[in-house]
Amino acid sequence: MTIFSRIIAGEIPCYKIAEDDNFFAFLDINPVNWGHTLVVPKHETDYIFDLSDEELSAMTLFAKRVAKAIKAALPCRKVGVTVLGLEVPHAHIHLVPLKNEGDMDFSHKISDPDPEKMKQIAEAIRSNFE
Ligand code: 5GP
Questions:
Q1: What's the per-residue H, E or C state across 7-72?
Q2: CA–CA distance, 36 with 111 (Å, rounded to integer)
Q3: Best of 16, 37, 38, 84 for a ligand 1 pocket test (most atoms within 8 Å of beta carbon)
Q4: pLDDT tens-digit readout, 13-51
Q5: 3-128, what's its fold?
Q6: In whole angstroms, what is the distance from residue 22 CA to residue 86 CA?
Q7: Contact 39, 93 (CB under 8 A)
């Protein structure tokens, strides 16, 4: 069971953003920028391009809804999209609110984010999710 499956199962706490039958979104615990969100399929698959066409398409559409909520909740120009997958073997899409290119620098993460700020950001994004 991956760490993301344990988060989805509620065994590990997270700042949850949204879920449906097949996908789950929550704040990255070491964000590159405030509002950095992960979108994951509930079905465990390591590599995103091993997902079926149907699952990948549905995941993209779910991520679009989350990105719209991030953009509505936080001051940013756009929401950037990245797939890395080098650390956690459970497919996921990174969504990061951007004002400039440096906001998506994965070599400079916020290492110990303030829990109260994370909670407020999650609530703001959640309340804009449609
Ligand atoms: P990647 O696999 O895409 O290289 O990186 C995995 C991402 O998941 C990292 O940005 C990391 O901060 C995040 N992450 C790893 N473990 C946890 C966790 O337990 N909770 C949350 N919310 N994020 C995590």
A1: HHCCCCCCCEEEECCCEEEEECCCCCCCCCEEEEECCCCCCHHHCCHHHHHHHHHHHHHHHHHHHH
A2: 13
A3: 38
A4: 999 999 999 999 999 999 999 999 999 999 999 999 999
A5: HIT family, subunit A (3.30.428)
A6: 22
A7: yes
Query: Do the Cβ atoms of 111 and 46 come closer than 8 Å?
Result: no
> For residue 52, how far is its CA from the centre of ligand 1 (angstroms)?
23
Provide the greatest CA pair distance for the chain. Answer: 38
Q: Is 87 in the pocket of ligand 1 (CB under 6 A)?
A: yes
Question: Is 43 one of the catalytic residues?
Answer: no
Instruction: Give the active site residue among 36, 90, 92, 94.
Output: 92
What is the pTM for the complete model shown? 0.98
Res. 119 pLDDT band, cuts 50 70 90: very high
DSSP code for 124? H
